[in-house]
Design goal:
Order of helices and strands of chain A: HHEHHHEHEHEHEHEEEEEHHEEHEEEH
CATH architecture of the largest domain in chain B: 3-Layer(aba) Sandwich
Mean pLDDT of chain A: 97
Number of domains of chain A: 2
Number of helices of chain B: 13
Low-confidence stretches of chain B: none
Radius of gyration of chain A: 25 Å
Mean pLDDT of chain B: 97
Low-confidence stretches of chain A: none
CATH superfamily of the largest domain in chain A: Type I PLP-dependent aspartate aminotransferase-like (Major domain)
CATH topology of the largest domain in chain B: Aspartate Aminotransferase, domain 2
Number of strands of chain B: 12
Distance between the termini of chain B: 47 Å
Helix content of chain A: 25-40%
Number of helices of chain A: 13
Structural class of chain B: alpha/beta
Strand content of chain A: 5-15%
CATH superfamily of the largest domain in chain B: Type I PLP-dependent aspartate aminotransferase-like (Major domain)
CATH class of the largest domain in chain B: Alpha Beta
Strand order of the largest sheet of chain B: 1-7-6-5-4-2-3
Oligomer: heterodimer
Radius of gyration of chain B: 25 Å
Number of strands of chain A: 15
CATH architecture of the largest domain in chain A: 3-Layer(aba) Sandwich
Strand content of chain B: 5-15%
């Protein structure tokens, strides 16, 4: 076994030093009755070349943007990743290190996280950001729990236009904490219904959670929502499922959000069939001590040199145990590094240009699809790089037809929104060339017999 | 030969301090559709403070930062309970195959059969390795798996008509255990153990308000809980469930299975036992195995096979629901499956045997010098204390001095039940030669503590920074760079 260096002679010498006659004896404290007493039934071992072949065959069975024109979004996005990102995270001093518990030999990870925290603050318009959470959905649930701690209230309002899996995750995390979770309906233009919100908000409400952009790709009117929510002493939690939008849209912090959570996958992390991704989490300075997750802070060493350490750990489970602000331990450190490298490459100009390209491409696709007979755009509010399409023909048939033309046309909405059985969600990024968009519209039009 | 030495280390500013207006490090294709304009009141100013750098600047910056780190590829990393084994390179290669890396999670299942087949096979293999009836791959890390497991236990009790109120947790447990129990609405009742837990202690603490016992086996002292069967019986007699923290599964592969011991739920740490890299703090993956009666409560989604094809099942009425978006940390699952496929049954068992041999070898070489508070046979890790360290040197000093010798320190001050704990887990991927050099360093430091304690107390001296002021960092937190 090439990962295990022991020779027979090594084993013999080691057993002698230990003072036992066999490796078997080392397991003497495990009672006979719980011993397995047989070999595990797992597939036979593969050599490295066999493994590569086997995995390549499995991988080839999956559709990707190289084999299909893809318009899939819905919380995971097909963005370009510069070659630099993978080269740098493949430095094994980064990826084979553990959590930076020993700062003197972890300054690389610690400084990179400090830079990551700064980039997230700048992008979201917030004061402090943590070192990462599992993904956008779990960060959203942690944001809700923080709002409950901060307000000592028990009512949570979730916009129905918030990503359905984020809503589901919030519900699961809160299930046994005696919280009251209320859904705020969607208005006709695709935004959270601010009038309905008015009647649901009360003095017991801890927070309203909305997507920015929301699940339908629509830009919520955060400023008005913040004003309404703050009027009753509740907090506004903005959940950003497509953070490229923040290169163009006003930051949630600037518009009055109290907690900003989101999914960082768009920043240099491949879609990878759903993970690993990057939950980001940002808040106001005054609330820093009730934040979940690890934080890196600046300090000095004995000679006064700048250095970085994990800090404010009295909030965390390894110190506070059951009174901790979260149970999180491992986070998504390497994904945070990917985002840091990606954003460093893009910089001020790149993030804006990337956002503008996504916005322009989606606007073009909307216009093209809106002009196809049998298809319409039900929501009127401004959107970023995703939008909802309504079809006269059953959605399943439309998408199957597109598939035959080599196009993954979008995500059907009927599963999560039964009232939207005739709608689907289309995402367009900088990766979709004009010809692809034209082909999508043309392919939709071929069902024109309807 | 002593491993640790000094060498040229390059200074590097913060990325923001490198910024030079006008530089760019990216290229996008020319916009091939008309530029659209978003209504003015929604548009932000430029992102204030974002850096402006060339590609070369960025590459050099992060390459320099990487040299300030210590990873498993740099050297021995005996961090107890973290199982810092070698991270095989071919696993990195297969995880990056375009068909895995670029598959979108919302791909229709018939166009994602390769990914789903891999997940299904991994579910089955982990169930076989652990002795459970079913496995979910959804959780993103160990603590996330704990949450999934404890939510299922709570949901099961609720379905029986009574949720119960308390969870028993031994004093040797990881901090995530009590934090998770609290997140499920339970009160935590600590139970003390003297090295190992007895069925008698558990029986005395059990009543019909106890929903579960959370146990780690082998425990965080590296000792097998020999009364595990009787402990599980004591919990089951009162209608409770047993949760096992699977952080230490590397001691059991092919030898014994938690599912056969009476345990009802256990999470795996694929980033420990199954060789996936820790990434400087993640991403990991924390699949969970359960007994039959908990299968209806598994989180969404679950991969099922129908004939020759696979699909994601989300329509399970008693499921605890979603714990994250999408299906799991798939990229990590690919690596873990590559590891299992490379080792096979014999290789997995051999890994465990050599991990246990290595821990016992370190113990044998150090126990005359370092105080060993629990003398029962160790499995995959061994816990010493700093009691016998002289010269007013303590565990922290030892840890920092080990850095000068070229090693990542062991886990320190954990488990909490050992004062000044030094928790050493070598894993199976280290040779006798490496262990000998490490033990020589440990013995040399004990001698230094006696004869030249200042060397130990001033350590580390060879690193680019010396001990950092953590108190100052917490008192006036500076958590981001500010312009000017």
């Amino acid at each position: 076994m090439r990962y295990i260096p022991h020779t027979e002679e090594d084993v013999r010498q080691m057993l002698e030093t230990i003072g036992v006659g066999s490796v078997e004896e080392l397991f003497e404290t495990i009672p006979e009755k719980v011993r397995l007493g047989r070999s595990l039934e797992v597939p036979r071992p593969l050599s490295e070349s066999e493994l590569l072949l086997d995995f390549s065959r499995l991988a080839a069975l999956n559709a990707t943007p190289a084999t299909y024109s893809s318009f899939l979004g819905g919380g995971a996005y097909n963005h370009f990743i510069p070659a630099v990102v993978d080269h740098l995270i493949s430095r094994s001093e980064f990826y084979t290190a553990y959590t930076p518990y020993q700062p003197e030999i972890s300054q690389g990870t610690l400084q990179a996280i400090f830079e990551y925290q700064t980039l997230i603050c700048q992008l979201t318009g917030m004061d402090v950001a943590n070192a990462s959470m599992y993904d956008g959905a779990s960060a959203c649930a942690e944001g809700v729990l923080m709002a409950v701690r901060a307000t000592r209230r028990r009512r949570i309002l979730l916009s129905r236009a918030l990503h359905p899996e984020y809503r589901g995750t919030v519900v699961s995390y809160c299930r046994y904490l005696n919280l009251d979770i209320v859904e705020v309906p969607v208005a006709a233009d695709g935004r959270t219904d601010i009038e309905a919100l008015g009647s649901l908000l009360d003095g017991e409400s801890a927070a309203l959670v909305v997507g920015y952009p929301n699940y339908f790709g629509i830009v919520e009117d955060l400023a008005s929502l913040a004003q309404r929510v703050h009027g009753t002493g509740a907090l506004l939690v903005a959940a950003v499922q497509e953070p490229v939008a923040l290169g163009l849209l006003k930051s949630p912090g600037e518009l009055g959000a109290d907690i900003v959570v989101g999914e960082g996958q768009s920043f240099g992390i491949p879609p990878a069939f759903g993970g690993p991704y990057l939950g980001f989490f940002a808040a106001r300075q005054k609330d820093v001590r009730s934040m979940p997750g690890r934080l890196v802070g600046e300090t000095v060493d004995r000679e006064g040199r700048r250095g970085f350490v994990l800090t404010l750990s009295t909030r965390e489970q390894h110190i506070r145990r059951e009174k901790a602000t979260s149970n999180i331990c491992s986070n998504e450190g390497l994904c945070a590094l990917m985002a840091t490298i990606f954003l460093s490459l893009l910089g001020k100009k790149g993030i804006r240009e990337l956002a503008e390209q996504n916005f322009s491409k989606a606007a073009y696709a909307r216009q093209k699809i809106g002009a196809v007979k049998g298809f319409s755009l039900p929501f009127g509010a401004p959107c970023f790089n995703e939008f909802v399409v309504e079809s006269a023909e059953p959605v399943g048939e439309v998408l199957r037809r597109l598939e035959n033309d080599g196009i993954l046309g979008g995500i059907p909405l009927g599963k999560d929104y039964p009232e939207m059985g005739n709608r689907f969600l289309v995402c367009v990024t900088e990766q979709n060339a004009r010809q692809e968009i034209d082909a999508l519209a043309a392919s939709l039009g071929e069902g024109g017999a309807m | 030969m002593r491993v640790g030495t000094s060498g040229l280390s390059l200074n590097e500013k913060l990325i923001f301090e490198h910024s030079d207006p006008g530089r760019t490090g990216y290229s996008l294709p020319k916009l091939d559709v008309p530029a659209a304009k978003l209504q003015e009141d929604l548009v932000r100013e430029e992102v204030k403070g974002f850096p402006e750098l060339s590609e070369v600047d960025v590459v050099r910056h992060f390459t320099r930062l990487s040299t300030w780190n210590y990873g498993v590829d740099s050297g021995f990393y005996p961090l107890g309970s973290c199982t810092m084994k070698y991270n095989p390179k071919v696993n990195e290669t297969v995880a990056r195959l375009p068909g895995f890396a670029w598959a979108h999670p919302a791909t229709p299942p018939h166009l994602a059969q390769g990914a789903l087949a891999l997940m299904f096979a991994l579910q089955e293999a982990l169930a076989e390795i652990s002795g459970f009836d079913a496995v979910t791959l959804v959780p993103a890390a160990g603590a996330h798996g704990e949450l999934a497991g404890m939510l299922m236990i709570r949901a099961w009790h609720e379905a029986q008509g009574r949720p119960r109120t308390k969870v028993l947790i031994p004093d040797t447990a990881h901090g995530t255990n009590p934090a998770t129990a609290a997140l499920c609405g339970y009160d935590v009742v600590p139970v003390s153990s003297d090295g190992i837990l007895t069925a008698e202690t558990v029986r005395a603490a059990m009543d019909e308000d106890v929903a579960a016992l959370m146990i780690t086996n082998p425990n965080t002292l590296g000792l097998f809980e020999s009364e595990i069967v009787e402990i599980c019986e004591a919990v089951h007699e009162k209608g409770g469930m047993v949760y096992c923290d699977g952080a230490n599964l590397n001691a059991l592969l092919g030898i014994a299975r938690p599912g056969d011991m009476g345990i009802d739920v256990m999470h795996f740490n694929l980033h420990k036992t199954f060789s996936t890299p820790h990434g400087g703090g993640g991403p990991g993956a924390g699949p969970v195995g359960v007994v039959e009666k908990l299968v209806p409560f598994l989180p969404a989604p679950w991969v099922v096979r129908e004939g020759e094809s696979y699909r994601l099942d989300e329509e399970r009425p008693q499921s605890i629901g979603r714990l994250r978006a999408f299906h799991g940390n798939f990229g990590i699952l690919v690596r873990a499956w590559a590891y299992i496929r490379t080792l096979g049954a014999e290789g997995l068992r051999h890994a465990t045997e050599m991990a246990v041999l290595n821990a016992n070898y370190i113990r044998a070489r150090l126990e005359g010098t370092y105080h060993l508070p629990h003398t029962r046979r160790s499995l995959h890790e061994v816990v010493f204390s700093d009691r016998d360290l002289e010269g007013d040197c303590h565990t922290l000093d030892l840890a920092k001095r080990l850095i000068d010798y070229g090693y990542h320190p062991p886990t320190i001050y954990f488990p909490l039940v050992v004062k000044g704990a030094i928790m050493i887990e070598p894993t199976e991927t280290e040779s006798m030669e490496v262990l000998d050099e490490f033990c020589d360093a440990m013995l040399a430091i004990a001698r230094e503590a006696r004869e030249e304690p200042h060397k130990v107390k001033e350590a580390p001296r060879l690193t680019r920074v010396s001990r950092l002021d953590e108190t100052a960092a917490a008192r006036k937190p500076r958590l981001r760079w500010e312009e000017g």
